[in-house]
Design goal:
By secondary structure, the protein is α+β, with helices and mostly antiparallel strands. The protein is 51% helix and 10% strand. The protein has a 4-stranded mixed sheet. A hairpin with a 4-residue loop joins strand 3 and strand 4 (181-183). The longest helix has 18 residues, at 57-74.
């Protein structure tokens, strides 16, 4: 059975635009997924990336145009400048870590609910009430927002170290059990081709 380690950031618009395609693909091909939320700014700093606000204006403008095009092609609502972005991604990431450890609910739906809350619904995903609502909508107990903070912090930090050590440099980033790496939601078709043995 194939396995995919999914490195992502809850404040990444491209993680939002990935939707639940990874989960659909994994189900179709009998693959498993481990969700690894990480500190994207920490990853940029460690791997030569530059936070969006510090990029050259040409790159910033292209990013905006590309996000608008991606969203339209995917028929997904997107606010190019959300009211609560950037925000602290740690609380939502800790909730995902706790949810995955609980073994109940739908982790993929939780990731998408949180990223959608940020990029489409004008909600601050650092706030407990938003996180609780997303947990509940994905079939988890809302109290997971308050549990396992120390474990969440340790895992969150470990996910960043693992991402760096395994060659990730952006989000979303997918790494298969045979060390094939795919960066960006626009490479999900390539990941599927790999799962099918075509590449």
């Amino acid at each position: 059975m194939a396995h995919i380690d999914y490195f992502f950031a809850t404040i990444s618009p491209f993680t939002y635009l990935a939707g639940t395609k990874l989960e659909d693909m994994a189900k179709k091909h009998g693959a498993t997924i481990t969700y690894k939320p990480m500190d994207i700014m920490g990853l940029f700093a460690r791997t030569g990336g530059i936070p969006p606000k510090d990029r050259h204006p040409n790159r910033q403008e292209y990013r905006k145009q590309d996000l608008v095009r991606r969203a339209k092609l995917l028929d997904m609502p997107l606010n190019i400048q959300p009211a609560h972005w950037p925000t602290n991604p740690a609380p939502s990431s800790y909730a995902i870590i706790a949810a995955q450890a609980s073994g109940s609910g739908d982790v993929g739906a939780l990731v998408h609910a949180l990223t959608r809350a940020c990029w489409s619904e004008e909600k601050d995903i650092a706030q407990d009430d938003v996180i609780r609502d997303c947990l509940t909508a994905a079939g988890f107990d809302a109290s997971l927002a308050d549990s396992g903070m120390l474990q969440g912090a340790e895992t969150y930090a470990a996910n960043l170290e693992e991402a760096v050590n395994r060659g990730a440099f952006g989000a979303p980033f997918y790494i298969t059990d045979d060390d094939q790496r795919f960066w960006g939601q626009d490479r999900l078709m390539d990941l599927e081709a790999h799962l099918e043995g075509r590449i």
